[in-house]
Amino acid sequence: MTTGQRAPARTRLLETADRVLFERGIRDTPVDDLLRQAEVSAATLYTHFGSKDALVAEVLRVRLSDWRGVWDQHIVAADNDLDRLLSVFDALASYRRDQGHPSRWCAFLAAATELPEAPDEISDVLAGDTALLADRLLQLSRPIAGPHAQDLADQVLLAYTGALAGFLRGSPRSPIDVGRRLAHAAAQAHSRD
Amino acid sequence: MTTGQRAPARTRLLETADRVLFERGIRDTPVDDLLRQAEVSAATLYTHFGSKDALVAEVLRVRLSDWRGVWDQHIVAADNDLDRLLSVFDALASYRRDQGHPSRWCAFLAAATELPEAPDEISDVLAGDTALLADRLLQLSRPIAGPHAQDLADQVLLAYTGALAGFLRGSPRSPIDVGRRLAHAAAQAHSRD
DNA sequence: GTCTATAAGCGGATAGAC
DNA sequence: GTCTATCCGCTTATAGAC
Question: Measured by CB atoms within 10 angstroms of the end CB, which terminus of chain A is less buried, N or C?
Fold first, then answer.
């Protein structure tokens, strides 16, 4: 379905930014490099977004939206309570596989570390991701852990966050698998209550 | 035992850097701010260390050494196999309590994120931390999980890393407690084999 | 001899003007 | 779409104080 038509400048810029920013590092990627790779002029960037920070924020919002969609699908596809809870790990594996350019670890957490004094527009996305995770994991924990659902949800969130940070650390070898097993052990412990 | 004597410039610089770099962010802290806060001249920094990167590297090496010492003490103090394995969490809580200025999350992982193209001198410290964790956790897992020690060690490392990243995410509320319980559940699952 | 104060060079990055 | 003003951060040079 390649039409030969070139995507509009705004789209090219967003896609380039998403591909480069989280591989090379947000701060380490000069705007000029993005412009050159996207074949877009500086004026275009500042008309459409206003600043590098605003571009970063928009890229992050798109990521969050995509991620939510992928997770949605995996929740629907799961056919029992345990698999629904653990589907966050399958969704993560799927999300990383689908984008040809896996980021070094997590775009939201990386932004929080690299841009500690960034405008709220940016930190809000991490907050949104965290809220999404916390809310859903709590719901999905109820059928398994009942009154201890919050406890289980906290543990699964931590295992998920650990899997992401495991990529940054470079250990263990397959962070998503290990995180999933860890969350599984936590769920088992809670279903024996 | 305060003598009124001022610590030497090199020491003041190291202490200031350790306090500020991981609170405000490594890249977001200009050298000038460190100099002003440490009441040290620029010439002193560059004669003692040679560059900002080299100063960062030295601060990280000191941190790794301190952290190893704290963990040592907690391993010795533990009086059974399970507590020895989980002592990494108690050591982390203790380490963070002892430094008056808890960093936002983990200095080594933050450096890896903020300085992706940093000299080996810097990335080596994260590698050293990871090797320390992986080696020790494997040893401490053997008495509990026997042939599955590597599996358990991977999971505890991931829970530990997740606790650190949990501070960055701001959730769950008490990452170290949650991480410890998670590792506990993993150990229990392995001791039932 | 160690440290301070000051200033300036220099590359690089953002942002906006033309 | 190009080009450039402006700023900022790291580093070094100079000269002097304790």
Answer: N
Q: Which of residues 151-180 of A touch strand C (CB under 7 A)?
A: none
B53-191 CATH fold: Tetracycline Repressor; domain 2 (1.10.357)
Q: Which fold has domain A60-191?
A: Tetracycline Repressor; domain 2 (1.10.357)
How far is A168 from B126, CA to CA, in rounded Å? 10
Identify which of B55, B23, B20, B127 has the alpha carbon closest to the alpha carbon of residue A113: B23
> What is the tens place of the pLDDT at every residue in A13-66?
999 999 999 999 999 999 999 999 999 999 999 999 999 999 999 999 999 999
Q: Name the 3-class secondary structure at B171.
A: coil
**Tens of pLDDT, residues B82-141:** 999 999 999 999 999 999 898 999 999 999 999 999 999 999 999 999 999 999 999 999
Q: Is the model's pLDDT at A1 over the cut of 50?
A: no
Name the closest residue on chain A to residue B172, using Cα atoms. A154
Domain ranges of chain B: 53-191
Q: Which residue is nearest to nucleotide D14 (CA to C1')?
A: B43
